Amino acid sequence: MSHLERLVAQALADARERELQPLPGVPPPARPFPRAGLIAEVKRASPSKGAINPGLDPVRLAQAYQRGGAAAISVLTDRVHFGGSLEDLRAVRAAVSVPVLRKDFIVEDFQVREARAHGADAILLIAAAAPLDTLRRLRALARELGLAVLFEVHDESELAAARACEPDLLGINARDLKTLEVRPETFARLAPLARGIAPLVAESGVRTPDDARGYRAGGADLLLVGEALSSAVDPESATRALVRA
Length: 245
Fold this sequence. Notes:
Low-confidence stretches: none
Mean pLDDT: 94
Largest sheet: 8 strands, parallel, barrel
CATH topology: TIM Barrel
Helix content: 40-55%
CATH superfamily: Aldolase class I
Number of domains: 1
Number of strands: 10
Distance between the termini: 39 Å
CATH architecture: Alpha-Beta Barrel
CATH class: Alpha Beta
């Protein structure tokens, strides 16, 4: 199995356990997701880096991001590999006024429904994680529930699926989730081919203001930044520096 296949299998196993539990009550209305700016991520750990900031307080971190000018917050809810939870999502959503993205390996309807039930304003769908028919069904359900969709690709071959799903945002991830390798040239290679599908989100490999300026010059409308901000000594200042760049 590839790294991505293992991640998806674990996410499915966890979701099937949660299906036995009742979902929370009526969530607050979804907030419109931005089409430009910085998406700052609450990230305790990752399969590639291991522990990043295992003791972080998701609420304090998200509030620091908001003060620093983040346009939206991404919350990893994968428990085993990223140390996240749906409780983190709920807590962050209640503590900030900007939209919140649920970032996980979503391949079943229940995961979309629980994202909205826990307050998410948007979800991540990954082209390589599921067949096109599944991705289109999940995208349609998200639209029905008022959720925006960030659709993530890693390769030119996945752009057809992105067009078919008509996402709100198109993420180009420099990290190949099948191998966990980061290829910084990925965005520059795919961006000219992806224009016109949806506003472009550059994912992975952003650490400095120079990185942010480079992606912006290459056509990125938004940046999604996790490790560099979650591990920052002063996340508010780190966020502000990227936003200004």
